Amino acid sequence: MRKFVPYKKEALPLREETDILVVGGGPAGIGAAIQAARNGAQVILVERHGFLGGNITACYVETCNHFLFKHPDKVGGLYKEIEEKYKQQFGRSDDIRSDFPAHRFSSEYLKVFLDKFFEENKVKILYHTLAVDVLKEDNYVRGVVIASKSGLEIILAKIIIDTTGDADVAAYAGVDFLKGRELDGLCQPGTLNFRLCGVNVEKFLKKGAQYYSNILRNMQEDKTSGLSCPRKTAPMGRLTSSGMLSYINFSDVYRIDPTNVEDITRGEIIARRQIIEFIEFIKKYWDGFENCELVSFAPIIGFRDSRRIIGEYTLTQEDIDVGRYFPDEIVRYPRFYDMLSLTGRWDDSDTLYIEVQPDKEFSIPYRCLLPISVENLLVAGRCISTEHIAEASIRAISACMATGEAAGTAAALAINNRTSPRKVDISLLRERLQKQGAKLTNIENQSRK
Question: What's the rounded Cα separation, in Å, for the pair 408 and 418?
Fold first, then answer.
């Protein structure tokens, strides 16, 4: 049982007041903040790191829409706009690979791009700022307590959007949530990506990434690799002309609670050890990697799922499989699943991967963004209200950004009409989202639920 120590109680300095406060600067937070500002609201975004981008920049997930590389027409809205404007400025980010045509951001260039993008859209950012509590009155969150080098302060806002990925603000506000698999609470493993230099460019381009992946898979299945991490795949990012691989996705730490600081610490330590083992492995067995060197670990270990709020509606696997339409649909997305092994077995009973099927799509209803018990709080990103398996479909970066766009647009409409997010006119919200480029279902001739 935890012990509690008395601590001083005092009024906190007011940092600012705003219409909308977005907590978390990942894909969902980017979507929420930009669209809220474009729809006329005053917006502040707080971010715990010194940059925007979330898992793209903090975890080196640069190939962030790879599920849809064969079907780029399926993605619209802000993600498409950012990708196109980024390409105009930075092109292919010195990526010379041709074996996988999906666009890859440079995590470093993207930081610079997003700084400017937010400035142009008049969104105020507070970096190195962590939300640590809320000021709640009845069923309203009046403000968020933040911690930074400036100390403990408070930001008051008419509407708060939680895009932390872990539903931190919602949890502080007392919103009910689930975490991990319904059976036992297990989450998908944590992964630390890393960056290499010294790769033989000529050999890599000749052999292709699949050649190297097959070596890993075969040796893992034969149990001859000597690696402590059981993972059988190692997706790779940009290969630059200088021989740098911008990321390799190899390391899995199991039975980690992404909201427990001791678990996160253990995950970082174990993942770094796994990566050092893996680098020795590829130096020995991957032709062209003999002289490779570690450039950097990603700034943080990445997680695929965490808390999921209990909202007005919980999206189910059945909803996704049958492509159920909802009248309050705010995202339409191609069906796919990417559920990694929860225990490290890496067999069919413990993983679920289904590639994008362009003829099968599913809807995310607005109600999944609305906590049951709080009036002026919206949640976007991977921590919206879903079943655990369903979360493996909605956690894709462009999907998270799309739910963020819906949350930001809805919040701005609520501000403009002096109402709560729960009472926003759904037809007006959908119309506005479509004008912003969202690809939603035509409402005629759809089955209702």
Answer: 15
End-to-end CA distance of the chain: 45
Flag whether 271 is in a domain: yes
Answer whether 25's CB lies under 8 Å from 129's CB. no
Q: Are the CB atoms for 22 and 45 separated by under 8 Å?
A: yes
Contacts of residue 171, defined as CB under 8 A and 6 or more positions apart, other chains included, come to: 177, 259, 307
Tell me: do 343 and 224 sit in the same domain: no
What H or E segment, with its residue span, contains residue 38? helix 27-38
Give this prediction's pTM.
Answer: 0.95
Residue 8 lies in a domain: no
Element (H, E) at 27: helix 27-38
Tokens representing 44?
């502040």
Contact 324, 394 (CB under 8 A): no
The answer to whether residues 336 and 403 belong to one domain is yes
Residues 143-194: tens digit of each pLDDT = 999 999 999 999 999 999 999 999 999 999 999 999 999 999 999 999 999 9
Q: Is residue 95 part of a domain?
A: yes
Q: Is residue 344 situated within a structural domain?
A: yes
Q: List Cβ neighbours of 66 (8 Å cut-off, separation of 6 or more).
A: 100, 102, 235
